[in-house]
Amino acid sequence: MSEKNNPIDEECKFEECKSEACKFEKCKLKQRKLIEARIKEIRELNNQENDLINHRLTWLGLTQALLVNAFIGVVDKYMKDGEHFIPYLCIVIALTTIGILISCSFRKSLNLAHTALNHLKNLYVDLRKKLKEMGYSEDYEFPLAIGLFCNENEKDQQERAFEPWKVMPMLFIILWIAFIVVFTLLFAILKI
Q1: Residue-wise pLDDT tens digits, 2-50
Q2: How far apart are CA 152 and CA 143, in angstroms?
Q3: Phi and psi for 29 in degrees, rounded to 5?
Q4: How far is CA 142 from CA 39, 53, 166, 191, in A?
């Protein structure tokens, strides 16, 4: 074996290695272990973000259900009373405004969580590329992190547009706008 091809004589590619007595293979193993630890950390962070999204969606659904229940109670009371439209309208506008604001707030926080997931995905893909550069095969021991799609095609991206954290807040905003329109039309029909 010539001296040029001897991996022991090559310069170490491990950034943190400052040792003159470095054995290239030893540093490669050390670097792989650091990457494995980082990938495990990314998986844990990914799970935490998924839990956070799950909790936010649960609270969004709960708050909206309570507001819809209050809205139905107000409409039912108005249908029984039939008079004094203005106080009922004020309550309906307040409930609608609260519902829309809560939906907008949750939409913003869910988008931030989705951005964090995308950041984790990019870190994960970069680490897998580093492993590939180190000579490990593409399907080396590391399965894809849960919920992270590293090889997305256009169809996958279109399907991801309908993920719950993207759709639910907008559906509730549309629902509240529909409620205020229906309530106003109901009043107009009853007064004709």
Answers
A1: 444 433 334 445 555 555 445 555 666 777 788 778 888 888 888 898 8
A2: 15
A3: -65, -40
A4: 8, 25, 29, 67
